[in-house]
Structure formats: C-alpha cells, structure tokens
Design a protein that fits this description.
Chain lengths: 263, 424
C-alpha cells in the first residue's frame, strides 16, 4: 500500500446503501480514505460515483450503513453537516459568481467581518496567502472571475473549498474540459493538497490522471465495490477490467483481436 | 498600449508576485490615460457615457435658451429629480438581482394616499403617519417578494399584478373627490415641499454639507489606504486619493455655490443624498450587499454557498417597496397633495429609465445606486430643457424614450464587449 502507514482513516463508509424509488443506486459500498492520500473513485457512467459522493456531501442521506468520521459514527443529513465535519466538495459545474472578484468568490457565504462590516483587507490578504501557498498563479485577486481561464477557474474553485479548513476534499472531474497545461496545473494542486495532509477523493474518467496522482483506486460497478487497487502495483488494464466488469467484454475482445492481428 | 512599469506597485517588502500578463496602471497622468483606453476597449464604460451625455444635453439646451445654464434651472432640476430618484434607488436593488419591479409607480401613489388619509382624514400625527406609510410600502414589497421567491411566480407578473392592484386600492382610498390636499406647515411635508431648504436656506448650509461629504470621503479613503498598506496588499497611491478628493470637492462645492446662488439646498435633495450614501454603503460594505450581488451573479453558486436566496429576494423587493413609499411621499410634497395622478405609470418608466441610463445593468449583478442620481440628472435635465422651450408632452416622451433605448443599447453592447474581454 502506498498510503501512509500512520493513516487512521479520516472518513470511512461501512456498508452504504442508497435507493431511489425502484433503483438500487448503491449496495453495501465500503470506502476508506486516510489523511495525506489521494483516493481515485472510478467507474462507468451510472456506476454510482456521483451518488456516493453526494451521500458523503450530505446531498442524499444514506438509507443503510454507517459513515465514520475519525473512527466515530456520524450522521450526515444536510450539506451543512458535511461542511461542519470538514468535508469540502468541488462540483463539476464550479458554481462561481462571474460578477464577483476572486476574493469575493473565495469567501462567498463566509465573509470575514470587522465590526459587522466586510473586512476586505483581511480577506484579500489571506486570499493572497492561500493562493501563494498553493502556488496558484492568477493575474490578480481583484479581477472578476469572468476574466479567468477554465483552468484558473478550477483552481479558484478548489482553493475556495479550502477556506473552511476541511480535512477531506472531494473533486468531481476536476480535469474534464481542461487543456493539457491546465490539467497539469490542477494535478499539481491535487498533489499539494495531499502534501498538506488532506484526504482527497478524486472522481475521474481519465486513467492517465488517475495513475498520475492517485495512491489508491476504488472501482465502483453497478453500485457495488469492484475492487480497490494500489496504483503503483496495478496495470491500467486491470483497472479497466474492473470498471467494465467482466473478462468477456468489448475491451478484452478488442485486445484479443489486436493481439491476433499483431501476430 | 504600453507595458507595465517596474515602479508601479504594491509595497516592496511583502510584494505579492504580480502576473506579468496583468496590466497594472502606471503612475501619473499617463497611467490614467492608458487604463482609460483599456477600459473603453474592454467595454467597461462605467459612468462615462452618461457624463458625456449630460454635458451634451446641457450644451444643446443652453444654445437653444440662454436661461438654461442658470442656477434657478439647476435648483429646479435638483429638487424635482428627488421623488422619482428615490423610486429608482429601490429599482437598482431589484435590477441587481436581474429582476424588475413594475409596481413602484403604483405603490408610490398608494403611499401618498395612505399618508393623506391617515394624517388629514383621520388626524393621525403626520410623523407617525409617515412611519406607517413607509412600513406599508416595505410590507407590499415583501409580499411581492414572497410570491416571487416562495411560490415561484415570475417577478414581472407579480409586480404587474401589483401595478394594477395597488393603483385600484389608491383610487378606492382617495374616494370620490380624488384629491386630498396636504398641509405643508407640519410633519414631513414641511421638509419635502419646494420651499424647504437646509438650515432655512442659509448660505452656510450648502458649504457645511459639501465640506462634510468631502471630509468623510477623504477620511475613509486615507484610513483604507493605511490599513491596506499595513496589511501588505495593493493600495491606491496618495496622488490618486488626492485627485479623487479634488474632483469630488469641485463637484460638491460647485453644486453648493450654484444652489446657494438661488435659495439654498432643498431638504428633499439632502434626503436623496443620505439615501444614496446609506444604500451604497449597504451594497458595498456589508455581508447583505455581497449576497445581493452574488444572487444577481449566479443563483446556484449563492445557494451552495449557504445564502438564502429567498430571503435575499424578499428583502430586496421589500427595499424597493420602501423606497417607492419614500418617493411617493416626496412627490406628494412637491405637489402638496395626494391625487389620482399619483400613481402615474410614467413615474415607473422614468425610474427604470434612470437606473438603466445611470449604468445599472438589466441583466443583474452589475450596477450601483449612484446610477439613480446620474440617470435622474439626465432625465430631469431633458425635462427642464423641453419645458423651457415650451415643447409639448408628446415630444418629451419621445425624447425620453429615445434616451432610454440608447441606454439599454449601450448596456447590451457593453455586456457583449465585456464578455469577449472577459469581464461579464
């Protein structure tokens, strides 16, 4: 295992199940994530990744099972519960206010106050410090978010999740729709979050990203666990086989064909 | 366009790394000019079109009539812009959410009627009647906001219903005579009438107000500069502060001189200035103001940040109702009566026009309460000029309509340019 030996899991899911009407979205899912670890969560469309993340974030309360936070069982019913525990979620649509500047967006909903008024100076100062410790380069913290590039908006959204001092950060497809350079910047940032001792849950469809930054890969298939692999000792083919679920499928058939063709 | 100078900048010790792609303003006059040019190209026009337009209007009318550029005419403009200007302040709040409030004209007429019925027909103390009237306006606005935010009816439709409904209620209140005269010797009407001036029209009054305003601005600006310097974040250079203060002082004392030349500073104008300063402070410096801008920018992002969108909407429409009532009382003070023409739909149109002409976007998220002042200056200047030239109402409406159309076109165009320049 590449995860730090000292790691007691900060967040553990035990036998989580979730139904939506007639659909059993999650069945007996187990998941652990330790501080200073990047856990990639992969699976095909409809495998239950988003549902699982939303149960952790408090958007969908769980039906069965238990969520443990630093060893204690906890109840997460609302997004605020998750935030109070220290779970920060960055959704795919970044939800930034284009008309507000970077500082305004970073502190939206938890502005620093001085005698009841907005303390712009303190917010700007801490925003600059936060961005520079994360080595995030944006032209200025006082320009509207509308004028930032896609990658810059993504790092602002991630930096914003850190304002509340979380212990677990969930990133939903942070590199989707980003260029090569911006993807590298976001992956660098993910590594810096790990170095700060945060537990990162990274949802991605991109195997290259997963193998680049993740320590472990948890595979979901049809709402169930389908293996947890340490990245260093696992080939991409094994992970893909776990995602698609069977040895006899389009991918393996194609591999067999190309292998024959080579011969 | 020239590149950045090394000597610009944030304080040396903790200088935050400045991205080389960011254009920083150079020191001195040249810096202002290059930044100005950049802003124009980026579609960030700010108040420039309206100030230029105002100067053109004054020049055109003064060429037509030599009496136009006189202190008497400016006194007229300064007094008569207040009523609709107050409606416009409330509308700026609503426009910042990207919504519209069509009921402000009717609510202002209704408020005048409520005040008249209470204080004249029922002999209630006029100050107490004013408080009840203002609360009525705020409650009506909150009702519109509730139906919009909680039930989900589009604001356009809710306030259109209010536009008709409250006008009908006003007509019912005023009864068969249709007019209730308001005594101007007591209560709030004493201060809102055209013969009421700050410090009784004493020449010191205008200078005291101008001095207070400039001193307060300088004090807060210097304090902010000091705090930013201590915190090690970029701050305005002193030359910049002084320049801004001098421009403000010229405007403030110039206005004082012109008004003193006539009868003094109307108390209604003082009320307008106080309302502008307070609302600007609320929007720019408080957590509530930040929420208003956030909801106007991105509703989903605001909701996820824990902002109660419904609460913001209800309070914004309530604010609009409050200022509609305050404006209604001021308009009643101008004509010393509450009558059936009080809810003139024209007032609504002019109030919306003023906010948009002044630079508040119809698309939400961008604007400032000062646009109520700038827009009303334009509208009332045109009004006064056309009145002086003896042109018919028909021409007046056509010209005001054309100005509004021009303002909306500028708003849409600058929004498009801003998008391409990444400043939406």
């Amino acid at each position: 295992m590449t995860s730090p030996a000292a790691g007691e899991p900060v967040l553990a899911l035990r036998g989580i199940s979730k139904r939506f009407g007639a659909v059993q979205a999650l069945t007996d899912v187990e998941l652990e994530v330790t501080p200073g670890e990047v856990l990639a969560l992969v699976g095909d469309n409809g495998a239950g990744k988003s549902t699982l993340v939303k149960t952790i974030a408090g958007v969908h309360p769980i039906d069965e099972g238990q969520i443990e936070w630093e060893g204690r069982p906890v109840n997460i019913h609302r997004p605020q519960d998750a935030q109070t525990l220290g779970v920060a979620t960055v959704y795919q649509d970044l939800a930034l206010c284009d008309n507000l500047d970077v500082v305004g967006n970073l502190y939206l909903g938890r502005e620093l106050k001085l005698r009841g008024l907005l303390d712009e100076v303190a917010m700007e100062k801490t925003a600059q410090e936060l961005l520079s410790t994360l080595a995030i380069r944006i032209p200025s913290v006082r320009i509207p978010v509308a004028s930032l590039s896609g990658g810059q908006r993504q790092v602002v959204a991630i930096a914003r999740s850190l304002i509340g001092d979380p212990k677990v950060v969930i990133l939903d497809e942070p590199t989707a729709a980003l260029g090569v350079e911006q993807t590298a910047q976001v992956l660098d940032l993910v590594e810096r979050l790990r170095d700060r001792g945060l537990a990162v849950i990274l949802i991605s469809h991109n195997m290259a990203d997963v193998t680049a930054v993740a320590d472990r890969v948890a595979v979901l298939r049809l709402g169930r666990n389908n293996g947890i692999f340490p990245v260093q000792h696992t080939t991409q083919e094994t992970i893909i086989a776990a995602i698609t679920g069977a040895t006899d499928n389009a991918v393996t058939r194609r591999q067999a064909r190309t292998a024959e063709g080579d011969r | 366009m020239s590149e950045t100078d090394p000597d610009v900048t944030p304080p040396p010790a903790v200088a935050p790394p400045v991205d080389p792609r960011l254009l920083v303003r150079e020191e001195g006059i040249k810096g202002y000019l290059t930044e100005f040019e950049r802003k124009i190209r980026g579609g960030d026009l700010g108040s420039l079109p309206v100030v230029v337009g105002l100067v053109i209007i004054w020049i055109v009318f003064s060429l037509q009539d030599s009496n136009y550029l006189t202190s008497a005419n400016f006194e007229y403009i300064a007094y008569y812009m207040v009523g609709i200007g107050l409606l416009s302040i409330g509308l700026v709040f609503v426009l910042l959410l990207g919504e519209i409030d069509l009921s402000v004209g009717s609510v202002s007429g209704l408020s005048a009627a409520v005040f008249a019925v209470l204080s004249v027909s029922h002999g209630v103390n006029p100050w107490f009647a004013m408080v009840i009237t203002l609360l009525t306006g705020a409650a009506i606005g909150a009702l519109h906001g509730f139906v919009f935010a909680k039930i989900g009816v589009p604001a356009f439709v809710v306030t259109l219903a209010g536009f008709m409904g409250w006008q009908g209620f006003m007509l019912w209140l005023l009864g068969s005579t249709g007019t209730i005269n308001l005594p101007t010797d007591r209560g709030p009407m004493r201060y809102l009438s055209g013969n009421s001036f700050f410090l009784g029209g004493d020449i010191a009054g205008g200078y005291i107000l101008a001095g207070l305003g400039v001193a307060a601005y300088l004090y807060s600006a210097v304090g902010l500069q000091r705090r930013r310097r201590q915190a090690g974040v970029p701050y305005r250079p002193t030359s910049d502060l002084l320049l801004r203060t001098v421009v403000l002082a010229i405007g403030a004392f110039g206005t004082a001189v012109i008004l003193n030349n006539q009868k003094g500073v109307p108390n209604a104008l003082v009320l307008f200035a106080v309302a502008l300063i307070v609302t600007n402070f609320v929007l720019r410096r408080t957590g509530y103001g930040r929420k208003v801008f956030a909801v106007g920018g991105n509703i989903e992002a605001s909701r996820r940040a824990g902002i109660s969108v419904a609460m913001v909407r209800i309070t914004v429409f309530s604010t609009s109702g409050f200022f509609a009532a305050l404006g209604g009382l001021t308009i009643a003070g101008q004509i010393s009566s509450a009558n059936q023409a009080g809810s003139d739909p024209n007032n609504l149109m002019l109030a919306i026009a003023a906010a948009v002409i002044g630079g508040t976007s119809l698309f939400g998220g961008r604007g400032m309460v000062w646009s109520a002042l700038l827009g009303m200056l334009v509208i009332e200047s045109i009004n006064a000029g056309l009145y002086m030239l003896g042109l018919a109402n028909s021409i007046q409406y056509m010209i005001t309509g054309a100005v509004l159309l021009a303002a909306v076109i500028i708003d849409s165009l600058s929004r498009r340019t801003q998008k391409s320049a990444g400043r939406a």
